[in-house]
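task queued by scheduler; priority normal; single chain, no ligands, no partner chains; default sampling; output format set to structure tokens
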Amino acid sequence: MLRLVLDGILALSRSTPDLDYLTGSLEALWAEYDFGKRRTLINFLIKEVAIDSMSTHWLRVQVLWLHEEWGREEMFYHRRVGGNKEWRDEEKKIIRDHYLSMPRMELMALLPNKTWDSILQMARRIFRNEGEKNEHRKKETFPRWMVNCSHSDLVFMREHNIEGKLSYTNWEPLSYRRR
């Protein structure tokens, strides 16, 4: 990372005469820069980036800017593929014991990192020869976007007031240095 920052400083010093002018006019100049110059500038202006998993699919991205007055910002990003793939034996047992009788949200709470779609797929495998037992689930209504959410995703979204179909949030400032 240090090497990237040093390369960024060197590249900027060759291509721009005054860094204060550059950062002050960044919005106006940004469209003129090619991707390489934009990346170099971003690498130069960022002190730290932290990425944390908040739920099965949601990540938090925090940026600490080098310029102290800009402070720290964060945003949330929804990744399409979650971090939990393999089914453990205990999770399969929950499907066997509760799938046929338990309401959807209660069942999802017992399997907090599994999406409703993955629960349905596992139930089809487990109850493969008992098709009529699986029919009652087809009658349930559920917004399409929720099928690919886990219980932990839904809880996280509710806690952060994130609407269902969003795949990322706006950047929000967390701190500023006051003069």
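post-processing summary
- Strands lie at 46-53, 58-65, 72-78, 172-175.
- The chain is about 40% helix and 15% strand.
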